[in-house]
């Protein structure tokens, strides 16, 4: 189960922090991350993080602005979003995925981020 929180409305240039509480067995071949879907557009992989937190990746459009992290003691994944732009407006989904190809296995319900 994946449960997101932390979305909301913010002005351009502002910051938000998304949180995802995850549960269930974590297989070594899995990873965690965030996808998003902007209005009228398809799903986009935003950022992924390995199980030990040592490896991360980001879509080019958020590099230098977003930071993914996790706390395995608390079973939490975070997405710190700074210098937000209107183009970041989307529903953000927490996912558990295969580390080999980032194919999502499980999805959260999503949280809305609106940047104006």
Based on CA atoms alone, the radius of gyration comes out at: 13 Å
Alpha-carbon distance between the two ends: 31 Å
3D shape: globular
Q: pLDDT average, as an integer?
A: 95
In the predicted model, the low-confidence regions spanning at least 5 consecutive residues are none
- How would a textbook summarize the main sheet? 7 strands, mixed
SSE series? EEEEEEEEEEE
Instruction: Quote the beta fraction.
Output: over 45%
The helical percent reads under 10%
- Structural class, please? mainly beta
- What is the total tally of β strands? 11
Counting DSSP H or I runs of 4 or more residues, the number of helices is 0
Q: What is this structure, in a nutshell?
A:
With 116 residues, the protein is an all-beta fold. Helices cover 0% and strands 54% of the residues.
Jot down its keywords:
116 residues; seven-stranded mixed β-sheet; four-stranded antiparallel β-sheet; 11 strands; 54% strand
Write up what this structure looks like.
With 116 residues, the protein is mainly β. The protein has strands at 2-5, 8-10, 16-22, 30-37, 43-50, 56-58, 66-71, 76-81, 90-98, 104-107, 111-115. Strands 2, 4, 5, 6, 9, 10 and 11 form a 7-stranded mixed beta sheet that branches. Strands 1-3-8-7 form a 4-stranded antiparallel beta sheet, with no helix packed on it. The protein is globular. The termini are far apart. The relative contact order is 0.33.
